[in-house]
Amino acid sequence: GARGAAVSLGIHGKAKGAIGAWLTIAEWKRDIDLNWNRIDVQTTKVDGETIKADTYYSLVNGQFVEA
Fold first, then answer.
1. Which residues on adjacent β-strands are paired with residue 44?
2. How many helices (H) and strands (E) does the chain have?
3. What pTM was computed for the model?
4. Residue 22: exposure state from Cβ atoms within 10 A (0-12, 13-18, ≥19)
5. Segments making up each domain of the chain, as ranges
6. Which of 6, 17, 41, 56 has the greatest count of CB atoms below 10 A from its CB?
């Protein structure tokens, strides 16, 4: 809903929400030994312009991108 929150902290995670909701997403990368390491976690608000409502987003290179 408009006052909701979606949190995705797993590998290859994605999240979506209604206008006014908050999205928190983690970004992961593998190291030379193929171990997964969390490299970033960010939160943004769905505003309907920069972050569209009801659209899945992932975190790539520290940026929210449509998934």
1. 23
2. 0, 5
3. 0.93
4. middle
5. 5-66
6. 17
